[in-house]
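Support case: user asked for a sample of complex input and structure output to validate their parser. Sending the pair below.
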Amino acid sequence: MHSFELVKPKTLADAVAALADGAQALSGGQTLLPTMKQRLADPGTLVSLTGIPELQGVCQGDAGIIIGGATPHAVVAREAAKYYPGLAALAGQIGDPAVRNRGTIGGSIANNDPSACYPAAVLGSGATIVTNTREIAADDYFLGMFETALEEGEIVTAVKFPVPQKAAYAKFVQPASRFALVGAFVAQFADGVRVAITGASNNGVFRWPEAEAALSASFTPEALKGLTLPADDMIADLHGSAEYRAHLCGVMTKRAVMAAG
Amino acid sequence: MPKDGGIGDSTKRREDIRFLTGKGRYTDDINLRGQAYAYFLRSEVANGRINGIDAKAALAMPGVLAVLTGADFAGMGGNPAGWLINSRNGEPMKEPKRPVLAHGKVRHVGDAYAVVIAETYQQARDAAAAVEADITELPAVVDMAQALADSTNLVHDEIGTNQCFDWGWIEDNRAAVEEAFKNAPHVTTLELTNNRLVPNAMEPRASLADYDAGTGDYKLYTTSQNPHLHRLLIAAFVMGMPENKLTVIAPDVGGGFGSKIYHYGEEAAVLHAAKVLNRPVKWVAERSESFLSDAHGRDHVTKIELATTKDGQFLALRSETMANVGAYLSNFSTATPTFLHGTLMAGPYKTPLVYVNVKTVFTNTAPVDAYRGAGRPEATFSIERIIDKCARELGLDQAEIRRKNLLTPDQFPYTTPVGLVYDTGNYQATLDKMTELADLAGFEARRAESAKRGKLRGLGLSTWIEACGIAPSNLVGVLGARVGLFDAATVRVNATGNISVMTGAHSHGQGHETVFAQIVAEQLGIPATSVEIVHGDTSKIPFGMGSYGSRSLAVAGSAMTKAVDKIIAKGKKIAAHMLEASEDDIEFKDGNFSVAGTDKAKSFGEIAFSAYVPHNYPLESLEPGLEETAFYDPGNFTYPAGAYACEVEVDPDTGKVEIAAFTCADDFGNVMNPMIVNGQVHGGVGQGIGQALLENTSYDENGQLLTGSFMDYAMPRADDVPFYKVDHSCNTPCTHNPLGVKGCGEAGAIGSPPAVVNAVIDALHRGGHTHVSHINMPVSPARVWAAINSK
């Protein structure tokens, strides 16, 4: 690891100011710190977001629940369960306990790893990403592998989730990292079903409109019968071919529907 | 019932207290005053010519003390191969020099070519980035078949080929085996790979070197499974110094699995640096360095054929294997695919004719050497997979085809067609025990229940044998070994009656400190708590050969027993003097020396005290002191064997395999500590399941390691393995060592992979996917799904 300065602001305003000089925001550090340890990143100055009270916690809002951007997965798993069990269950399956107690929702979706779990929940729920400057609909936020609509220095301060009638996440893990090889999040709202898939695509998390339409008509595993995704844009690596991932999208979506009940 | 703390007692491991409370003392826990830190520069290309290394800028950086390169070590000797193998045509193997640091060429990603020494590790690492290495990348040789076919693109230009040797075992049997295949009623053929594995011991390799300018003595603290072997290799072969000027200390070591048998260049590099700088120098590998530079395991590509009668009686077996040795010959890399593999190809069976061909191949990849099981897992996998396939082709039950061909108890000692003499065994007994424990009769009901949940259940068997307790020096010497494989122990009875046992074996997780104490305590009739085991320091222990090949108990434990015998003999002399009796009349029992037929006796403690307070000893006939050393060289390998059953559930939608049950019935001979034996089996089977389902070392065509971290290299986790059923009640004690023990350290890793893969194939067949005859390890979900859908 290269040496670096660590700034620990107590308020969002101080964090924004600290980031203005081109410093790097640090949330739970579950991606950034390993990258720095391998000397693949040399940020110079890190601005920690985890000591800012306004970025912490799970609470009920007008139209669902609001999760502070620096809230660790373990807290979401515990505290969101009574509001949004499908989301809490997803948070409870991320990584291992050490990861869940450090990693944060804001860090995860700011990084937008194509195999991360949270992007599936955020996109699958039609959540809204709140930053220090604006609100961004999930549909406009995820722009591709490791790419988001965030501007330089913009901080995810919260994520607002509408709470669906039913929702579940089904993850098939990559055997080594236990990231999602394919993860499917389905959410049934009064006005329709949303399906978001993580892990599979070279373009990062995506919605599956055909599955959404079928499930909106009938929220049953059988409704997905015959639906397939093309393998063209799927990730192919040591752990699975593009065809395998395309196939798993169907399997995991079906399992998510079954889990949602 | 075994005595508390004696032989056969499941005494809890005394060393675990310090390990579990953070009081273990590993190499990196040792710090010497004024120590500097080393960081090695490693090649980023698989094959490259070093045109020059400019360290000027690095040397100017803060804290930097020195930058040493391959040129600084060019005058030293090469790190040798420990075993000379001759090709079928009689030519000796090709043995290119393995230098301390790469010089002239780098030959694999991770090949160290320079080392920066600085006041701190971070300074060394910072400065490493400023070292300018001018390296021209050359085309890499990665695939074994291509490496053999290509005579222009060579890993070592000076040997003119990428083939190290082409070995036939036993060459004289070749014609008879070929004839048997020509005439055989049925021949089963299978091509398979034995996947390359990264050992991934929990503690990475580490070295701390110290040099005493006053005496010229070197000291090396290092992660070694065999400190005397390290001392021999470093002193006599590489650095060219008298062995008595080098002390090697392997303190607590966090796992080895073979990877810490070998001498690596980093060790000599830090020793030399310590002398150059006249300061201690420490190096601790990062995990990514372990992936790149620890000797990997396995990596065979094999075609195996089994000739049988129509009713499944084995007539002949032959195999052709390409074995990867990587870029350099590691110390036992030539023995592993040959004498630890070819000699086992008869398995526990009556197969009358066997022929094995092995071609070893240099490639631009990390060196490959012995890894838990070493050659024997490769042999067992080939044999047990071909039997499985043969049984399917002939419509025979998996247990029955094995039962039909297993050696029977009346056939021992049995000389195999591949040169071993099995001393004893009862393979039917372990097969019967496994059948009972695994409830094979109830399998169909369990399969039906799995099917209700949409899962395909399968059953796989493996009846394995191995040759361990390595090894008789007489035999291995004939076979090309350049070392002896005896071991040694010194038993020192202290004046107050407690005991220090200095052993040549090295414990890096095995529990020697507990088991060896149990053995000595039992034999001397004293509490185990009075016995302390000393290991891992060449300045304290007798010259022993260390721990690998499931040898510690069978070889070092036997040396200990011989030394205890000498202690008892000496104790009798002392007792005879003290009791004024004839030595022949002294009996030793339960810790007391007594005169036969009388109530005159002296306790062990009284004898010990007298040995060091020898008032009125007849010094011309009785030496003071009570300390004895014994060297033990076994008469034969030991031959543990067993029967394993694995049940899996396959999810046909995802290809995911779960181990539903795993049952082991093993014959390890006499068992000293059943709990520790269970632990060894659990660990070995866990590693075997890791190999079978998860672990894969993958290089791309340019020789870049694709699985260089735990993000892509899948290690087995607790939820990947089941609760095992383990039994070792079917004992046939080894006939040629004093404890009747065979060795259990590698068994699980040897016997389990074929059981797992056989179970997956069985599940697919029972599920109607009969077109799948084999899936290469690791049998990952993606591979299973692809196989199911390959029609």
